[in-house]
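User: Structure with benzoyl coenzyme A, tokens only please.
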Amino acid sequence: METPDVHGADGLLGEVEEAEADLRSAASRDLEGTASFEAIVAADQKIEPRDVMPEAYRKGLIRQIAQHAHSEIIGMQPEGNWITRAPSLRRKAILLAKVQDEAGHGLYLYAAAETLGVTRDELTEALLNGRQKYSSIFNYPTLTWADMGAIGWLVDGAAIVNQVPLCRCSYGPYARAMIRVCKEESFHQRQGYQSLYVLANGSPAQRAMAQDAVDRWWYPSLAMFGPPDTESTHSAQSMEWKIKRFSNDDLRQRFVDMCVPQAEILGLTLPDPDLRWNEERGHYDFTQPDFEELMRVVKGDGPCNRQRMTHRRRAHSDGAWVREAAQAYAEKARAAKGASREEVMA
Ligand code: BYC
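Assistant:
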């Protein structure tokens, strides 16, 4: 069967490439070495860890990057849930690779956060004791195999729409991490779309399963972009500092406009009777997600919050011996290196 590539994906990847080229030229920063934080941001160049920065900028970035990193790690659970039940060896291998990629994204992001003066251990602790959050989307259950396709298409799709502008974020290490994440995320979205396309064009039961998955994931995906602009606490400051480049509502609209033609190609219906093209606005009108539900889920009362955190805490304590062994090995290797250096000097 001919499976079309996800419509519109090339545009987003093009933006990532442009952001990467701009990042390279920002690396040869032509501002004076003593340029102020404000001057660097105003010149659209990058703040690096060595630069003086306002404490609120540093703290705000730690909050966002940590939440983002935790999302990648917790995001492994809903999909990991289907690895043993994938319908073929090929699908299993693809899903395994995808879940591993998410772990990698978590690592890039923890490393970016560490450049701001926190340790990975502190960030992990903040997740485990509930002081830091992760994306609302991963508190919904994955009920059927079609959810793997719907997550790839809609959740990874929303993640890319949100993250492509972050490739132009004013903080260098975050922007650089985002370039890699977006390239891989775009591949994830393509595979999700392809998998959903196969189901949508399969037997009546497969088609119904694909539609049901889209019905369940549509509104939680819209909610990923955060509260409406009028209720967003951090947007104004984040945009002034060029961490965020577009508002929550603007990105949500961009996502809807992108998904409508993609759904048509899939032959699936987006579960919104009021979704229609608005000639005057040049955008689709759509029903907003339930923001009260979003806030309930963010505060810990979603369908799977408890399950996700219980699993994460267990995984962390089960992995203690690996961390201890790695530490002991590193210390041994350091001591051996020290000893051989002493021999050379003697
Ligand atoms: N979930 O002032 P606002 C992914 C919180 S998936 C949870 O607008 P901001 C992946 C917000 O933190 C996604 N919390 O905040 C995909 C704030 O609370 P606090 C991860 C949310 O920061 C596939 C409060 O609500 N992506 O990567 O300006 C597989 C008010 O919001 C949510 C990122 O994290 C939510 N959906 O804008 C695996 C991208 N929405 O902190 C992984 C980076 C809002 O004051 N992050 N809140 O207690 C961002 O772009 C921004 O942080 C957001 C929110 C757009 C999410």
